[in-house]
Amino acid sequence: MNNERPVHLIASGDSRLAANQRCWPAQAALETTIGQVFAEFGRPVTRAHDLIPDKGHGFIDGQAYGMDVFRRLDPDVPLVVATAVWQYTSHILAGLSKHRGPVLTLANWSGEWPGLVGLLNLNGSLTKAGVPYSTIWSEDFQDDFARRCLSDWIQSGAFTHELDHVRALTDHTWPLALAEYEQRGRALAVTLRTEQAILGVFDEGCMGMFNAIIPDHLLHPLGIFKERLSQSALYAAMRDVPDSTATTHLEWLLNRGMQFRFGQDETQHLTQAQVLEGLKMYDAAARLAADFGCAAIGIQYQQGLKDICVSSDLAEGLLNNLDRPPVQDAQGNEVFAASAIPHFNEVDECAGVDAILTNRVWTNLGLDPSTTLHDVRWGEAVHDYGVNEFVWVFEISGAAPANHFIDGYRGAVGERQPPMYFPLGGSTLKGISKPGEIVWSRIYIENNMLHMDIGRGGVVRLPDEETERRWNLTTPQWPIMHAVLYGVSRDQLMAKHKANHVQVAYAPNATAALQALIAKASMANELGLQIHLCGTLEDDLSYHQRTEQS
Question: How far is residue 518 from each of residues 185, 487, 508, measured CA to CA in Å?
Answer without folding.
Answer: 8, 17, 15
